[in-house]
Design a protein that fits this description.
Glutamine Phosphoribosylpyrophosphate, subunit 1, domain 1; Rossmann fold; 18 helices; 28% helix; binds iron/sulfur cluster; 4 iron, 4 sulfur cluster binding; transferase
Length: 475
């Protein structure tokens, strides 16, 4: 019997997913809860399974955390209960089975009148070893983020700042973190700088965000990034760099440019849209094709498709319309609707594509299942030829640094040649962007980038045999 996909599976099956967006603000004269709400709203693409905000008024730390999108977790009433001058917020994408109430962030630790809250984007790869050190410490969740928070809480030092400085060198992996005590906001980032973390200013106060698009939303100005390994503190005496975990050794995630970040965000001072546009231009030079129309898999392929169209001189047009609200329902559709498969998410424009030679541009191929269905649906619309152009190299290796990838054997490019993938997807041609082309598009030094999911060259030693989520990555 043909296996049917649930709406959730349809949504998550094909793409890679980031593990979370974080935001923090210290602003005594502002409604920090509402500002954080709107910031999280603009970071929703980084995690859609749960959301939380913790606010301190200097004496008490209050929080609202729940499963669901930002708009379903928060409302005017509950936000009004979060009064204070420091806020941190979190959007979470969990690993399979990890989407539980206990794992919703920010994590809050409270003991002996001390309180500390933390929100994390990344993946601690030595969390199993670290959890051995916490044998006698009570745990309330199954996440690596709680391990991380508790390692900080048991580290030596009286002040939270000392504890962070002393705990951070024990952490291996990806972490971009915002945290707060009753009176201070903290931000720190792993020495490799895998995931982004930026500093902004609003009305003279400081904010920290996973992506700069949140600053645009709340009217803040982007100042700079939290440097790899840097620990910063913000309180009533202003902004202070507390220390450096280890020397700079930037290995920024190349896939943030390809898919994870919003096109209107700046990563390492480069607009993500420009990187994707450039990657489309380079791919048009590397893999030209005669066609009538260039189109994108919306939305992540759109910037690249525009670049491809511009360079190739082939007009850009919309072949597929995306239902942007499919993520809002977990209700199982009736069988005859489920059988439509990919049409729940993408509806083809029959009148536009019929009898045309169409170039379809996308950011990446993970398992190939969705792309195969899209090609099938387009063929049913009478498309004459379908040429796939992928604006990244083949993904052949899993990520251990905060992006949810399937096991290696499920990555289509790990088990098939490009020719076999083309055949499986049933496209007329299939070409990928070269790694050099992608790095050139990003305008970054190759040595400053993590490219492991394309090359298998991991910047930190990983055990490929270990199941990735021995301890669930909570973000
Ligand atoms: S392995 Fe890939 S997705 Fe993971 S950090 Fe490196 S480039 Fe990014």
């Amino acid at each position: 019997m043909k296996k049917l996909l649930s709406v959730r599976q349809l949504k998550y099956r094909e793409s890679l997913h980031d593990h979370c967006g974080v935001f923090g603000i210290y602003a005594p004269s502002c409604d920090v809860a509402k500002i954080t709400y709107f910031a999280l709203h603009s970071l929703q693409h980084r995690g859609q399974e749960s959301a939380g905000i913790a606010v301190s008024d200097g004496k008490k730390l209050r929080s609202i955390r729940n499963l669901g999108l930002v708009t379903s977790v928060f409302n005017e009433n509950n936000l009004n209960k979060l009064k204070g001058f420091i806020a941190i917020g979190h959007n979470r994408y969990s690993t399979t089975g990890g989407n539980t109430q206990a794992n919703v962030q920010p994590v809050i630790l409270s003991s002996n009148h001390k309180v500390f809250s933390l929100a994390h984007n990344g993946n601690i790869i030595n969390s199993s070893e670290l959890s051995q050190k916490l044998k006698n410490v009570k745990r309330s969740s199954t996440s690596d983020t709680e391990v991380l928070a508790k390692i900080i809480s048991v580290a030596s030092g009286e002040k939270w700042s000392d504890k962070i400085i002393n705990a951070a060198p024990q952490l291996i992996g990806a972490y971009s973190i915002v945290a707060c005590s009753k009176k201070r906001l903290y931000a720190f980032r792993d020495p490799w700088g895998f995931r982004p973390l930026s500093i902004g200013k609003l009305n003279g106060y400081y904010a920290i965000s996973s992506e700069t698009c949140a600053f645009d939303t709340i009217g803040a100005t982007y100042i700079r990034d939290v440097n790899p390994g840097e620990i910063v503190q913000i309180d009533n005496s202003g902004f202070k760099v507390l220390g450096q975990i280890a020397p700079h050794n930037l290995k920024f995630c190349l896939f943030e440019y390809v898919y994870l970040a919003r096109p209107d965000s700046m990563l390492n001072n480069v607009l993500v849209h420009s990187v994707r546009y450039k990657s489309g231009e380079i791919l048009a030079s590397e893999a030209p094709v005669k066609a009538d129309l260039v189109s994108a898999i919306p939305d992540s392929g759109t910037s690249s498709a525009l670049g491809f169209a511009s360079k190739s001189g082939i007009p850009f047009g919309e072949a597929l319309i995306k239902n942007r609200y499919i993520g809002r329902t977990f209700i199982q559709p009736e069988q005859h609707i489920r059988e439509q498969g990919v049409k729940l998410k993408f509806n083809p424009m029959r009148q536009i594509v019929k009898n045309k030679r169409v170039v379809i541009v996308d950011d990446s191929i993970v398992r190939g299942t969705t792309m195969k269905k899209i090609v099938e649906v387009l063929r049913q619309c009478g498309v004459k030829e379908i040429h796939l152009r992928i604006c990244s190299p083949p993904i052949r290796w899993p990520c251990f640094f905060g992006v949810d990838t399937p096991e290696r054997k499920q990555l289509i490019a790990a088990t098939k040649t490009i020719g076999e993938i083309r055949k499986y997807i049933a496209a007329d041609s299939l070409k990928y962007l070269s790694l050099d082309g992608l790095i050139k598009s990003s305008a970054q030094e190759a040595s400053n980038l993590c490219t492991a999911c394309f090359t298998g060259k991991y910047p930190v030693k990983v055990n490929l045999k270990l199941k990735k989520n021995v301890l669930e990555s909570n973000c």
